[in-house]
Design a protein that fits this description.
With 119 residues, the protein is α+β, with helices and mostly antiparallel strands. The chain has two helices and five strands; from the N terminus they run αβββαββ. This is Histidine triad nucleotide-binding protein.
Length: 119
């Protein structure tokens, strides 16, 4: 498999780890778009949110728990943060291994493509 994130999980590519357990890895984004910008990935390869199966529900919950723990560890839990998943080409997914972006460390701008009535 030629998956960038699987190679990071396997240690074939370097990463700056923030948190890790047997199912989830949190590491620094190499192209941060905020003062704090980490990626939260499952160690199991799942291409996108559309590929999550019923048996993956607990794993997704563990990813959310890792986001909470990473936000606290990185000092942004109180001030706030954004947790983003991009799914598919129109959602701007660039690595096809399901992941969340956890971003914070400053006041983040409004989301684009969403009308104010939906924010």
């Amino acid at each position: 498999m030629d998956c960038l994130f699987c190679k990071i999980v396997e240690g074939e590519l370097p990463s700056t780890k923030v948190l890790e357990n047997d199912k989830v890895l949190v590491f620094q984004n190499i192209n941060p778009e905020a003062p704090v910008h980490v990626l939260i990935i499952p160690k199991k390869h799942i291409a996108s949110m559309n590929d999550i199966q019923d048996e993956d529900s607990q794993l997704i919950g563990e990813m959310h728990q890792a986001a909470k723990e990473a936000a606290a560890k990185l000092g942004i839990a109180e001030s706030g943060y954004r947790l983003i998943n991009n799914c598919g080409p129109d959602g701007e997914q660039s690595v096809f291994h399901v992941h969340y972006h956890l971003m914070g460390g400053r006041r983040l701008g409004a989301l684009t493509g969403i009308s104010p009535a939906h924010t």
